Task: inverse folding
C-alpha cells in the first residue's frame, strides 16, 4: 500500500462538525487527500445534527465536491425514562466549565423534546449493504452507527471497518474517566463494540491530544490559496487567536490519519474494549489486552501527524 489506505474501499464519515472544529479539520484533510467520503452523516454532539449537516455541506462545496450529506439523530439511544433524568442529573453536577455542548442540562430544547432527527441510520445501513468494503470513521457520538448496525446482518458488517475517534483509558474530558463522544451515547458505543466488524480501531483521547497545531503552522496554512487556508484566514480575522497556543485542537485529524495513512508511525494493542453504561461511571472505557476483536491505538508520532496534515491541506487543488 501507499501512504494512503486502500482507496478502493468506500469511506463513510459520521460527524458532529461545527465551524472550524476538529471534525472540520479532519474533513478538510480527507478532502485534500482525495480520500473523499461517499457519504457523510451528521449527529448531535457539538451542536445539533441539523446544524452539522449544514456545515458539512458548506465545507464540501468549498472543496468543489458533491457529497451526499444526510442529517442524523438528535437524541442518543438512552433517550428513555428514568435514565434520561439520571444522566441529566449527572451532567448538572459537573463543574460549570465542563464542555458538554448539546447536552447542557439547562437546554430545554434538547432535554424536554423528543425530536429524533433525520434518516442517517437508514442511509448508513443502505450504504453498507451495497458496499463490498467500507471504512466508517466515527468523529462524534455513535448513535447513527449503532442504529444502522441494528439493521444489518453479521454477514454484511464483517466486510466493513470501524474507526472511532474518542473514548479514554487514562482520563476523560467530561468526567474523570469519560471522554465526550463516549459520554454522549455510551449505549450506542456498546452496540458498536459488540458488532462483528472486519476490524474496530479506537483512537482514545490521550492519543488524539498529542499533536498541537501551533500558531506558526496555522499562519503558514493561512497563506495558502486552499479551502482550509481561506477558512483559517477568515476565522483569524473575525476571531483573532490572541495568546492562545493553538487555533483549534486537531483530535479528529489524528483519527482520520490513523485510518487513511498506514505508514503513520503508531502503536496499537489488541484486546477487548468495553464501555460503562451505569450513570455512576457513564461513558468510562475499559480495555483488556489479549485475544479480542478490537485494536486500541496507544501511540502516534505527533510530529509526523502535523507534518503530513500541513503538507496535505496546503496543496493547491491543481496539484492534487
Result:
Amino acid at each position: 500500500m501507499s501512504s494512503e489506505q486502500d482507496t478502493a474501499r468506500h469511506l463513510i464519515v459520521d460527524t458532529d462538525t461545527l465551524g472550524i472544529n476538529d471534525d472540520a479539520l479532519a474533513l478538510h484533510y480527507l478532502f485534500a487527500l482525495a480520500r473523499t467520503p461517499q457519504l457523510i452523516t451528521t449527529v448531535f454532539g457539538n451542536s445539533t445534527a441539523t446544524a452539522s449537516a449544514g456545515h458539512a455541506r458548506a465545507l464540501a462545496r468549498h472543496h468543489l465536491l458533491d457529497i451526499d450529506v444526510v442529517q442524523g439523530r438528535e437524541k442518543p439511544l438512552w433517550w428513555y425514562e428514568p435514565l434520561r433524568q439520571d444522566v441529566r442529573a449527572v451532567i448538572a453536577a459537573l463543574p460549570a466549565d465542563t464542555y458538554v455542548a448539546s447536552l447542557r442540562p439547562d437546554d430545554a430544547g434538547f432535554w424536554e423534546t423528543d425530536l429524533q432527527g433525520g434518516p442517517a441510520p437508514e442511509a448508513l445501513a443502505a450504504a453498507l449493504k451495497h458496499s463490498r468494503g467500507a471504512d466508517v470513521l466515527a468523529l462524534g457520538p455513535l448513535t447513527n452507527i449503532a442504529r444502522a448496525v441494528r439493521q444489518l446482518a453479521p454477514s454484511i458488517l464483517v466486510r466493513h471497518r470501524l474507526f472511532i475517534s474518542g473514548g479514554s483509558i487514562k482520563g476523560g474530558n467530561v468526567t474523570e474517566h469519560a471522554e465526550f463522544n463516549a459520554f454522549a451515547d455510551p449505549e450506542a458505543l456498546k452496540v458498536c463494540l459488540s458488532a462483528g466488524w472486519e476490524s474496530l480501531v479506537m483512537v482514545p483521547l490521550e492519543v488524539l491530544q498529542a499533536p498541537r497545531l501551533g500558531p506558526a503552522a496555522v499562519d503558514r496554512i493561512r497563506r495558502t490559496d486552499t479551502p482550509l487556508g481561506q477558512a483559517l484566514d477568515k476565522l483569524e480575522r473575525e476571531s483573532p487567536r490572541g495568546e492562545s497556543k493553538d487555533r483549534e485542537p486537531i483530535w479528529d485529524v489524528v483519527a482520520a490519519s490513523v485510518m487513511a495513512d498506514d505508514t503513520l508511525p503508531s502503536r496499537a494493542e489488541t484486546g477487548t474494549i468495553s464501555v460503562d453504561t451505569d450513570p455512576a461511571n457513564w461513558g468510562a472505557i475499559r480495555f483488556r489486552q489479549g485475544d479480542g476483536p478490537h485494536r486500541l491505538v496507544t501511540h502516534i508520532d505527533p510530529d509526523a501527524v502535523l507534518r503530513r496534515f500541513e503538507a496535505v491541506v496546503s496543496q493547491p487543488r491543481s496539484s492534487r
Remarks:
- The radius of gyration is 19 Å.
- The chain has one domain: 10-319.
